[in-house]
Design a protein that fits this description.
The structure is a single chain. Helix 19 links the parallel strand 11 and strand 12. The longest helix is centred in the first third of the chain and has 15 residues. The strands form 2 sheets. The chain has an 11-stranded mixed sheet with strand order 4-5-6-7-8-9-10-11-12-13-14. Strands 1-2-3 form a 3-stranded parallel sheet, with no helix packed on it. The chain has a domain of 152 residues. Helix 4 crosses helix 6, helix 5 runs antiparallel to helix 6 and helix 10 runs parallel beside helix 12. With 643 residues, the protein is an alpha/beta fold. The chain is 25% helix and 11% strand.
């Protein structure tokens, strides 16, 4: 029997609604734009289709092999860093899609369930959005539309995910909550959802790291309940931060009742007696890294030996930022112990009381130092004295040497050039034998290492050169604006001054051939990667400086001597081969070039390495062993800045 209401169009709104839904598309349908190219992941033929033998082989895999496969599906599940959710995000894929694929693996069979759950709940992170095309579709579905509000209000997705996670963990705290070791949440979520965060942490007894709101680190009364929950339920935390105002909570660590397993301690604007601080650090036997920022109370008394106080612990990493009362004498006392010299591998000195002329005292004692970071502003040239020596270290591999002039100094003074000349002399004198990478704020630093002089003072393009007036009475050189290296002064009686830090008996170089007072101290003995830029706001420019092919004096590339090769620096492709993963370093968009001397004042052009032949079935530019592609589509090359 036909319904007469169909002719009247009463149920036509239902058919129109279904047509609109089909037009939008569903995430599993062919019309859903699942990838960057608009194609669905299920519509693409697999590169290696499954067979009966492969299915039988997968069923026989042991649990440890399955875990490694699941880690490749969701790499962030093994994130064991002590960085926040924003700093530890992956840049080459959608983390939520990878997490969804791993959750689907849990539902395949009982054998996969045990191995996948172990990986799924090891390191948990809550991301606010999908970093793929799926987010645009899901954002429309999350909007709560009504009859009078067609636009709808977006849902607080991170808060909803935290509530669902809290419910799952509290339903099975013995088997699931005990597996969680790292828990990371976005900034806005951990600042607003304190109650849900406390309920979730309450069932995580083996937690090693968790993102907490900033108010908890400064003893804010609004976060007192959350602090008590963390102290009672998470006794195995490995990192904790204390800000200004939390001195009383920091002093409680000396009692040895809370967080005895801390490995990383960060102090920001802490104003505490150095004697009390030494008792606090002595109560942490597993401490291996300390970061102190913006503290005037942190001075040399923390390192000086005292029979009545425990010694400063032997650390692997020591980061000092804006601590003007820490001098080289304090670090020398700290490095006087053999266990301290053997443990310290990373030392960062950012705007401290340690001056560059006394830096060699610290570097020479740190026999196990691998990375050194020095950042400071100077208002005068390098002050050398009878006790000043070159930098010398057999273990140093990476040096970040950023010396900038004071804003009040004249831009034409060139006071920073003397500090980079001191560093170049230390490298050329074979004092840093194991150094492989150096970061400087001097665009001409690579020329100093190659033995090439900067532009002469009279050159119109010389750096920091004073602009000459039209009425200047300077005599013109027969070679134009260039000065030949063998031309002496007008009086003929000027002798080049003795070079500081030069070995006794060494001949002094001609002062007119180079502005480098340490020229002639030697040459490079190994390949060195130089990352240089002229301003802190610019990107790093990468140059690989290799030892010269022939030793001996070479004519200047700026001279007009006949036969001199006037070749410029070869420029290759842009980008870095291996980024230097150091906190706070801008490694994006660096210019990469290679400098190899040819012995006659120029450079040898090097051919670019051809990419290896790709196997059949792989596209050019792809990985030889690519990780599994998520069903959300291909990886994105970049991410939104406002994530």
């Amino acid at each position: 029997m036909r319904l007469p209401f169909r002719k009247m169009g009463i149920f036509s709104f239902r058919r129109n609604k279904d047509k609109k839904k089909d037009a939008i598309g569903v995430p599993w349908g062919p019309s859903y734009p699942n990838g960057e190219n608009g194609l669905d992941a299920k519509s693409r033929a697999p590169l290696f289709p499954p067979t009966r033998f492969s299915a039988r082989l997968i069923a026989e895999l042991p649990s440890n092999v399955l875990e490694r496969i699941f880690v490749a599906v969701c790499p962030q599940s093994q994130d064991e860093s002590y960085e926040t959710c924003e700093q530890s995000a992956l840049e080459d894929g959608c983390m939520l899609c990878d997490l969804r694929d791993l959750a689907h693996c849990v539902q395949v069979c009982k054998q996969w369930r045990a191995a996948a759950r172990k990986v799924l709940y090891h390191s948990i992170r809550i991301d606010p959005v999908h970093y793929c095309a799926r987010e645009a579709y899901l954002a429309e579905l999350r909007k709560r539309r009504t009859k009078f509000d067609r636009n709808g209000e977006p849902e607080d997705t991170p808060s909803a995910r935290l509530k669902l996670l809290c419910r799952t963990l509290r339903d099975d705290p013995t088997r699931l909550g005990a597996r969680v070791r790292y828990f990371k949440t976005p900034y806005m979520l951990r600042e607003a959802a304190q109650a849900d965060l406390a309920r979730t942490i309450a069932v995580l007894p083996n937690l090693l790291y968790v993102d907490l709101p900033e108010g908890l680190f400064s003893d804010d009364s609004a976060y007192a309940t959350l602090r008590l929950e963390v102290e009672a339920r998470c006794p195995k935390l490995l990192k904790m931060t204390y800000r200004g105002g939390a001195e009383r909570s920091l002093a409680k660590l000396s009692q040895g009742t809370i967080w005895r397993h801390l490995e990383v301690l960060e102090l920001i604007k802490i104003n505490m007696d150095p004697n009390v601080l030494r008792h606090v650090l002595a109560a942490l036997p597993n401490l291996r890294a300390v970061k102190v920022t913006d503290s005037r109370a942190f001075n040399d008394d923390v390192f000086v030996y005292n029979e009545m106080l425990p010694p400063f612990p032997a650390l692997e990493q020591l980061v000092l930022t804006k601590t003007p009362n820490v001098t080289a004498a304090g670090l020398v006392d700290y490095l006087s112990y053999p266990e301290t010299r053997a443990a310290l591998t990373v030392l960062a000195l950012n705007k401290t009381g340690i001056e560059i002329p006394t830096l060699h005292e610290v570097v020479s004692l740190a026999t196990s130092l691998k990375s050194l970071i020095v950042q400071c502003r100077v208002d005068g040239p390098f002050k050398s004295g009878p006790q000043t020596q070159r930098l010398s270290s057999r273990s140093l591999e990476t040096l970040r040497y950023e010396i900038s002039s004071d804003p009040q100094a004249s831009p034409y003074s060139g006071i920073t050039q003397t500090y980079y000349t001191y560093l170049a002399s230390s490298i050329l004198a074979n004092g840093l034998t194991n150094l492989r990478a150096v970061y400087v704020l001097d665009a001409e630093f690579a020329d100093q290492l190659s033995g090439l002089p900067p532009p002469p003072p009279r050159a119109s393009f010389a750096q920091h050169g004073r602009p000459s007036s039209s009425g200047s009475g300077l005599s013109k050189s027969p070679h134009g604006n260039f000065l030949a290296p063998n031309i002496t002064g007008a009086n003929g009686g000027l002798q080049p001054p003795m070079r500081p830090f030069a070995p006794s008996g060494a001949p002094a170089s001609n002062r007119f051939s180079s502005n480098n007072p340490f020229a002639g101290t030697g040459s490079l003995t190994h390949t060195l990667e130089v990352f240089a830029k002229k301003d802190e706001a610019m990107n790093w420019s990468f140059v690989k400086v290799s030892p010269t092919a022939q030793l001996g004096p070479a004519p200047s590339r700026y001279s007009m001597v006949p036969g001199a090769l006037q070749s410029e620096r070869p420029i290759s492709s842009y980008g870095l081969g291996a980024d230097m993963l150091v906190n706070g370093w801008n490694t994006a968009g660096a210019r990469r070039s290679v400098m190899v001397g040819n012995g006659i004042g120029g450079f040898t052009a090097l051919p670019q390495d051809a990419p290896p032949p790709m196997p059949s079935g792989l596209q050019a530019g792809g990985d030889l062993w690519p990780r599994p592609v998520s069903s959300a589509g291909e990886k994105r090359g970049d991410r939104d800045m406002w994530r």
